[in-house]
Structure formats: C-alpha cells, structure tokens
Amino acid sequence: IPGQLNSDLRKLAVNLIPFPRLHFFMVGFAPLTSRGSQQYRALSVPELTQQMWDAKNMMCAADPRHGRYLTASAMFRGKMSTKEVDEQMINVQNKNSSYFVEWIPNNVKSTVCDIPPTGLKMASTFIGNSTSIQEMFRRVSEQFTAMFRRKAFLHWYT
Predict the structure, then answer these.
(1) Residue range 17-51, pLDDT digits in tens
(2) Is residue 142, in this structure, part of any structural domain at all?
(3) Mind listing the GO biological process terms from this record (predicted)?
(4) Is 153 inside any structural domain?
C-alpha cells in the first residue's frame, strides 16, 4: 500500500496477530453509502474515523463493544493530513480505552495512502482483532449443532 509509511500484508499480519491462535479479524469500511449518494456528501477525517469504528460499518455480525480490541489497523485513502489521522486515532484510543487491552501497548496502526478509491474523495478501511468475534463463532456453532442434530445435509457427504 503506497503512502508516507509503506505497508504490506506481511506487516499487517505481524502487527495484528499477537499470538498465532488469535488471528480472527473484523473488517470495517467507511463511508458505507449507496453509489448514487456518494457525490453529495464529503466526509472529514473525524467522520471517517467515527464511522470506521462503528459496529454498523463492520462486515461481521458481532458488536465490538461486547469485547476488547487486541490490535487494530486503520488504512485511510485520499488527500488528508497524516497528522490529522494520527490525532483522530489517539483520540479514539483515549475515549474508548476500556475497549482496548492494556497489555499490548501501541496496538493501533494507521496508514495513509494518497490515492483515493475510485468514485470517492476519501475512504478508510478498518481491520480489528477483537475478542467480540466469539459472538459470531458461538452463533455458527449453535446453528451447526441444530442442523447436525437433525442430520441435515449429511447425505451430501456420506
């Protein structure tokens, strides 16, 4: 990912996985808008940051407020100040310190890429390693157990 601080998938993995077994991510994106409404609303860095951390913008049906973040990465795209991005990320961590584990210092990484995504002036992507992902695993396990009890779909595999 080109920018002031170059980033790649290896660096992301190194920064987001504190222990090998804790490697399940929650992904978020901002702005989540319809294709037609994008041109009418210009977002600022604080609005992007707020939306990016919001549970409604997560691509996983788990509420991050029900767990704690081990690590997180925020990738911003578009013309914006790195200083403003860093200030917003520090602001988020200070306001929501109870949602971050204290035993991993500096657990939020941010990256700025000057090239905006097609059709948008600014956008941000969020990848978080949160303990709240257990909600999703619990739900999938319950659904599997219910179907396995009824022996549903087993004939496809035997």
Answers:
(1) 999 999 999 999 999 877 666 555 678 999 999 99
(2) no
(3) microtubule-based process
(4) no
Residue 121 CB contacts under 8 Å (≥ 6 apart), including other chains: 42, 43, 78, 79
Kindly tell me the sign of the dihedral angle through the C-alpha atoms of 68, 127, 84, 34: negative
Structural domains in the chain (count): 1
Number of helices (H), then strands (E), in the chain? 4, 4
**139 domain residue, yes or no:** no
Residue 33: inside a domain? yes
**Which token pair is 138?**
């619990």
Q: What is the pLDDT of residues 90-147, one digit of tens each?
A: 999 999 999 999 999 999 999 999 998 888 889 999 999 999 999 999 999 999 999 9
How far apart are alpha carbons 17 and 106 in whole angstroms?
13
Instruction: Supply the range of the domain harboring residue 50.
Output: 9-133
